[in-house]
């Protein structure tokens, strides 16, 4: 039985506005200027610790404040309903179709595991995914291949397609030596042609056929 493993933010959901709101609430409490969306988008993709380090650098904050600010933003995120986060168009239908094809579905994200599960629950997506590997689940995070390979093992192995939206996801798949499908409408920072991929798609209606071809099954 084949596996389809997904990145989360920027791939299945557009969550950046809610996270930006939490960070800007923290900055406001610190007496600092907020971050605009274009700037904030350049900070995302490598998990909350990386994001907080970029915010610290952007606002000239003492690096010794990292853990305190990290914990504030995490608490705000966990306490705040994802009012601005949306599931990308076509995702639910694609997940239903992939499940009907007999494929097992999982998540491999740099978002910490509990916030990832929190988000999946809030958006009624958790039932699709028995396995969720987060950025704090292991000693390494993407683009190291360990999280993705660990997700494969946790799901029982088999032919795999990894689906993501970013340069980090592409590099993770390359290091894990697994096929990669690039969702082009997420948080990538480079042109599609400069991101290594086996497949690229802008419409989730295309994904079941991509998975079928990659995994050698009927769509």
| Structural Rg | 17 Å
Count of the separate structural domains: 2
Share of helix, binned: 40-55%
Q: Given this structure, which CATH class of the largest domain is correct? A: Alpha Beta
Shape: elongated
SSE topology string:
EEHHHHEHEHEHEHEEH
* Count of discrete alpha- or pi-helical segments spanning 4 or more residues: 9
Number of strand elements: 8
* Main beta sheet strand tally, sense and closure: 6 strands, parallel
Low-confidence stretches: none
Strand line-up in the sheet with most strands: 5-4-1-6-7-8
Ends: how far apart?
13 Å
CATH architecture of the largest domain: 3-Layer(aba) Sandwich
Mean pLDDT across all amino acids:
95
* CATH topology value of the largest domain: Rossmann fold
Q: Strand-residue fraction? A: 5-15%
Q: Structural class, judged by helices and strands?
A: alpha/beta
CATH superfamily of the largest domain: HAD superfamily/HAD-like
Structure, described:
The structure is a single chain. Helices cover 42% and strands 13% of the residues. The protein is α/β, with parallel strands linked by helices. The strands form two sheets. A six-stranded parallel beta sheet has the order 5-4-1-6-7-8, with helices on both faces. A two-stranded antiparallel ribbon has the order 2-3. Strand 6 (160-164), helix 8 (167-176) and strand 7 (180-183) form a beta-alpha-beta unit. It is elongated, with a radius of gyration of 17 Å. It starts with a strand and ends with a helix.
């Amino acid at each position: 039985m084949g596996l389809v493993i997904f990145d989360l933010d920027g791939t299945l959901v557009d969550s950046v506005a809610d996270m930006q709101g939490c960070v800007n609430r923290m900055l406001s409490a610190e007496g600092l200027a907020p971050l605009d969306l274009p700037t904030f988008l350049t900070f995302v993709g490598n998990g909350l610790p990386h994001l907080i380090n970029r915010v610290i650098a952007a606002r000239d904050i003492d690096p010794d404040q990292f853990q305190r600010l990290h914990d504030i933003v995490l608490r705000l995120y966990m306490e705040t309903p994802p009012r601005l986060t949306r599931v990308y168009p076509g995702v639910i239908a694609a997940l239903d179709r992939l499940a009907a094809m007999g494929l097992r579905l999982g998540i491999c994200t740099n978002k910490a595991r509990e916030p990832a599960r929190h988000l999946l629950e809030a958006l009624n997506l958790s039932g699709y995914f028995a396995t969720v590997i987060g950025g704090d689940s292991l000693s390494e995070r993407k683009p190291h291949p360990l999280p993705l390979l660990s997700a494969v093992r946790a799901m029982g192995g088999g032919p795999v397609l990894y689906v993501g939206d970013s340069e980090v996801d592409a590099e993770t798949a390359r290091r894990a030596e697994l096929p990669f499908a690039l969702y082009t409408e997420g948080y990538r920072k480079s042109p599609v042609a400069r991101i290594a991929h086996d497949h690229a798609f802008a419409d989730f209606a295309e994904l079941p056929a991509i998975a079928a071809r990659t995994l050698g099954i009927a769509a």
